[in-house]
Every structure is written in structure tokens, then in C-alpha cells.
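3.2 Worked example (two chains)
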Amino acid sequence: MPAEVDVAIIGAGVIGLAIAAELAQEDKGIIIFEKNHTFGLETSTRNSEIVHTGIYYPEDSLKAKLCVEGKNLLYELCDRHGIGYKKLGKIIVAVNENEVKELERIYRQGERNGIEDLTLLSREELKKLEPNVEGRAGLLSPSTSVIDVYSLMKFFYSQAKRRGAEIVFNTEVIGIENTGTRHRIQIKDREGISSFIAGILVNSTGLNSDKIAKLAGIDIAQVGYKLHYCKGEYFSLNSNRKHFVERLIYPIPGQAGLGIHINLGLDGRMRLGPNARYVDEIDYSVDGTQKKAFYEFAKRFLPLLELEDLEPDSAGIRPKLQSPREVFRDFIISHEDKIGFPGLINLIGIESPGLTASPAIARYVARIIKELK
């Protein structure tokens, strides 16, 4: 490993890999550090693998702008490089009159965000498209997709390597010292502890991004960077329910997530989830006692569902800036020169729609870095 690099990226999830692939086009001396033995073992692969359209988010937010831009970039990238995806489409279902009003609000928000292919569905139109789904109304988003996230990350990884970036696994960043215009970074790997100098440091560590910001010397409470872990669990459906629905079926979203929905994998596998439970620790086990709650929630719009159809599947953790008392917090993508840390770029709270937004986030960070040079 060189003693000095132009850009160091901490975290080899889908965001860190996308940033590396983007930066490596123009910059030399790029290195990524990942504490796990390979890329994308946490938030990047413990999700629904959905390409979102940008329906839900306030129109001036980074979540909205980068989701819409990222969706278009992802489809172009997948088509060009043979990365698997499938435009199944999704329907958000309202089960009562109050939810119909919320559905209409979501439709208007989607229109403000520039999404032109949304269609409000009556009960009859919903039934015609999805006979096994029950609801008062629906909102159809035909361009929502399921994507092969591993293949996407493998592409970004290969692209970054081919363009000269170095990616180092089993390496944990344990110290960051700002030396004015540069950063002395201390790392721990199998050979022990060592350090090197980076001109620019990108913190893309997902669940640990607030800790890395704190390690760099930022008062995360003062600047509002404290993350809240929000767990999402999935239950798989029996194979005899394989053709239960043809599209992704979503409820009206809740405070902390988009709600327990029917998720269809590229292989046809069906899951219910994720739920949203704030937790204190990272734990990827599935709580089997949640099965009845999943069943009762989904039964509202899937009347044919039976309790025995459900089996525990998997879980993920969202790195949320939004506390249980808040309605919305946007992505933080910030060059920290204004608070005394020039050359440090923090990405905090990159949850959904971070996967969809990944190529757009990479371009956003690349523009920041270009302005620094």
C-alpha cells in the first residue's frame, strides 16, 4: 500500500464502490478500505433489491433528486453491461378511505418529482391487474424494478479495479487525524497497525458512518449526524404462493419505512417485509415472534394469505438519521470544510433509496472532489 494517496474511501458497499468506479476515471491514487472480507456484506445486500422511482420524497430533497437521476443511470448501466433487472412494476394499495387520501398525496408528490408514468387505480382496475389483492384503490408505478445487487456491486468493483483503484479488505480504520489540508489515517489489518496520508477522505461506511465522522473529530450530536439503527426483517412465502401476485405490492408507507410489502426476487422467490423496528445493536437474526404481526398486516390487502405460508427469512439494518420521533431526514452528503475539516466528505444516513441513487451519488461526490482540485 502506498504511503500517500489522492483519495481514500472508507466502505465498500454499493455506494463506496460506485464512488470508486466514478472517481477512477479521472484520478489516480484511489484506495478503498473495507473492514469485512469482501464487498457489500451489510446494508447493500440486506434489502429488497428494488430500483425505486422517487415517488415518496420531498421534491427538493437529495433523496428525490438522486433517486430519479440514479434510476435512469442504473437502467442505462444495466442494459449496457448485462446486469440483471426486471421491471415488474409496483402497486401501492390503500385499504380504507384515509389511506386513499394518502395515496392521492403520494401520487401528487411523485408528479412533483417528475415521475410521469404513475396511474391511480380504482378498486376494479386494481382487481383486474392483481386479482388476489384487495384494496379501495391503488397507485401503479410500472417502472419500479428488482435488480441483481451483487452483480451491480461486482461491476462497480471490477470497473474501479480496472481503472486503477486499490481495494483492501479485512482492514479497519481506527484513527483519523486532520493535518490541515490532508488526513493521516490509521488502519488495522492482519499485519498490525499502520498509517498513511490521504488528500481527500470519503466516509461511505453506512451503519458506521457516524462513528467514522466522530473518529475524524466531528461532534456528531452537535451537527445532527447521530444514526439510529432501524431493523427490517423478512419472511418468505411458501413456494405454492409463487404466482400469488405479478407485481411488487406495497402498503401506504409508515414513519420509518415503506411498509411490509410483497417482494419478488429475480428468481421468483416471494418475501414479505421489511418491517421497521428501532434497535440498539446490529443483529441480523429474524425474530420468529414477528410472524403473526407480519401476517396480520399483510392480510389486510392479501386476504388469501395464511399464517402457515410464512417462514423466517433474513434481516437488515437501516442507518437512519431519522429518529422515532421524526417524519423525514434527508441524505447528508457534505464536504466538511465549513466546520473545519477540509477534504473530508461525509455520507451519513444513506438508506433507501441509496441503492437506486448509487450512480447519482457517485457523480455528486465526484463533482465535490473536482471542485476541491
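3.2.1 Second chain
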Amino acid sequence: MNPDIVVRRSRIQGRGVFARRDIASGTRVVEYTGARISHDEADRRHPDDDDDGKHHTFLFAVDDRLVIDATTGGNESRFINHSCDPNCEIVITRRRVFVDALRDIVKGEEILYDYWYMTDETYTLDDLRKIYPCRCGAPTCRGTLARPPRRRPTKSNPDPTKSKKKAQAAAAR
């Protein structure tokens, strides 16, 4: 049990994690813990059923081989909610997941990080807002816990990598 944080009811979603004391920017707040399993095992344990609209949020994909399942052996970090304007960030070091303060956090403030779910690129932003809705209430809220899909190039919105390459080529001349 981490003496610097406490789990209690959140205005954002269910339970949340709150600071018991002031936390300085750059402080390591907590490690995300739980059973260390494969993606196949995570899928077996927690099948994703699009029909019911529920998605398991206690799973943390560390890399292509490792998932942390906080439902087994997890600590209070599993209750940290998402925000599009977070006060913390995820730092992965040696396949361990830590939550570090991005800025000073005052006593009583909810600990938040951006989940930035990776999804199939075929989903539209509207799809993601329905499947993974965000309730953070931040002025910059994108409406979803997921990473927005990349824009497909059009004539009015060309591929930015091609424009960058053209600019770099012109600068080299």
C-alpha cells in the first residue's frame, strides 16, 4: 500500500486515485503492478466483446509480448483514471510500468494519465468515441480514451511526411 495515494470515488469514472500529500513534478508516484502475462493469455482471460460495449481497463500492454493484468496481484494504480489533460505520465523501464508526475500535484487532487489506447486504424474518431468514451471533462478532451486515428491524406490535407520531405529537400539545396 502506497502511503502517498488513496483510492476513493471519482467524478470521472467509478473509483480513482488521489494524492494524500503534495507531489512534486517528476516524482515517481506508483508502479503499475499485476500478473505478467502474454497477449494471448490476456485475450483468453478477458475476451473483448464489442456487443456489450465493455472493455477491460485493468490490462496494461507493456510491449508486443507482455501485458500486466492488474486484476491479479495489482495495486491501487489500477484505479488511476484517464484524462486528455493528465497530471502524470507512464514511464516504461525494463518492462516495468511507472506513473510519474508531469507537474506538481496538490493534496487531494486526482492522479490521472492519458490511456492513449492503440486501436485498429480502420476505426473513425466517431467509432472510438462510442467504443472508448472519455469522461475526463478537460477543455482539451478528445472524447475518447483511444489514440485518434491518423488522418488519411487527401488533396486538401496532404500526407504531412511528404510535405516534410519536400521541405527538407528544399532546405538542403
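3.3 Remarks
The CA atoms of residues 47 and 60 lie 15 Å apart.
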